Amino acid sequence: MCYGQILLMEGLMSARIRLSSIHSFSSRQQNSILVPALPPKVTKRILISPTWIMRNPKSFNSIAASFQPLETSAETRFDNTLPSKEVLDVWRNADAVCFDVDSTVCVDEGIDELAEFCGAGEAVAEWTARAMSGSVPFEQALAARLSLFNPSLSQVKEFLEKRPPRLSPGIDALVKKLKDNNKNVFLVSGGFRQMINPIASILGIPLENIYANQLLFGSSGEFLGFDTKEPTSRSGGKATAVEQIRKVKGYNSLVMIGDGATDLEARKPGGADLFICYGGVQLRASVAAKADWLVFNFKDLINSLD
Questions:
Q1: CA distances from 21 to 30, 31, 180, 235, 255 (A)
Q2: DSSP designation for 168
Q3: Which residue in 89, 102, 112, 172 is the catalytic one?
Q4: Are strands 19-23 and 32-36 parallel, antiparallel or unpaired?
Q5: Distance (Å, rounded) from C-alpha 53 to C-alpha 58?
Q6: pTM for the predicted model, two decimal places
């Protein structure tokens, strides 16, 4: 082992941080390095050259030591990571559970990934952050993002073939547990049905239990826009969708799980009785602070149903 490698290992051991192997975001090849473990939306955008590490071991050690695992640091900032008895009672007795998809069921933001595939990733990601924080109307952010790259039908199909959905750890087990407990599961998303249908198939969720947006294409496959009649295409749309689900199905109790401001909106009279914020991918402080229960691992929800 060379001197630079020894310094690197000593620095990482002294920092006592959890490590994980990640791949180059730009090439998606097998050359990997060790960096501090971070949520997927952070680690996938960190590019550190192994050559730079060996030339600057002290600088890298300082960077590594400054990182803290998301869950550990968050628990000191929020007082809702342990559910109250009332919250547990609602969760355990709910008739149905509605999941957000992007950064909840999946580790990616679907529209961001599609935009990246089409060459407009960075610009679209900025708009996504605004939309999820609630700083701009959702419909405005959705139209603006799509206008930056105007995906064609052929691009969407190619994207789905080359970039299959990446499920969040434990979501498949949680959905199975909910169904075993006779709870109905819905996907309520500001994303697009074309990209969510395959996810529902993997999880065994009926397509009629999807409430999401629809991309529109012309006869030659050219992009025309999105269906504005879908409730999830505008601000407050998820809340409207959840209200529809509850009214049509006649549920006595319903829970919403997600990471964004549009998910939090669904907790209202006639809508969701409980909002569980999932911070395992994206932790939005303004949303997490208002959640009935903040979780970082779906195992917590699974275990609470036993």
A1: 10, 10, 34, 38, 35
A2: P
A3: 102
A4: antiparallel
A5: 9
A6: 0.74
Q: What is the pLDDT of residues 158-197, one digit of tens each?
A: 999 999 999 999 999 999 999 999 999 999 999 999 999 9
**What are 189-225's pLDDT values in tens digits?**
999 999 999 999 999 999 999 999 999 999 999 999 9
Cβ proximity of 36 and 17 under 8 Å: yes
Known active-site residue 172: no
Q: Point out the catalytic residue in the list 100, 108, 273, 292.
A: 100
DSSP class of 23 = E
Residue 100 known to be catalytic: yes
Concatenating the DSSP letter of every residue in 36-71 gives E---HHHHTT----HHHHHH-HHHHHHHHHH---HH
Closest CA to 184 of 168, 203, 158: 203
Q: What one-letter code names the amino acid at 109?
A: E
